[in-house]
Design brief:
This is CRISPR-associated endoribonuclease Cas2. One of its GO terms (biological process) is maintenance of CRISPR repeat elements. The chain has a domain of 65 residues: Alpha-Beta Plaits (2-Layer Sandwich), CATH 3.30.70.240. The protein is built from 2 helices and 4 strands, in the order βαββαβ. A 4-stranded antiparallel β-sheet has the order 2-3-1-4, with helices on one face. It is globular, with a radius of gyration of 14 Å. The protein starts with a strand and ends in a 25-residue tail after the last strand.
Length: 94
């Protein structure tokens, strides 16, 4: 199984139509998160695919997309009702 890295994906999209499309695209990879910040585990190929598809979707003059790779050696903290992020044994993209 390919190695997946842990990322935070965030976006700010001005058009309601592009916003809905961005949400649908990112949710295809999401394992957690809320509103417009999502927790995603991605292989190198999935990362390329997500960035490519998001670039096709967004208007560079009006919209923003941010993908931050988190340090795999860092400890994560979940407060309140939040669950610790976990890379599932299998993953369906779509």
């Amino acid at each position: 199984m390919p190695q997946r890295d842990f990322y935070l994906a965030a976006y700010d999209v001005s058009s309601p139509r592009r916003l809905a499309a961005a949400l649908a695209l990112v949710r295809g990879y999401t394992t957690g998160g809320q509103k417009s910040v999502h927790e995603v585990f991605l292989t190198r190929g999935e990362r390329f695919e997500l960035l490519h598809n998001m670039a096709l979707l967004l208007n560079e003059d009006e919209d923003r997309f941010f993908l931050l790779r988190l340090d795999p050696s860092a400890r994560t903290y979940a407060l309140g009702v939040a669950a610790q992020p976990a890379d599932p044994d299998y993953f369906y993209v779509g």
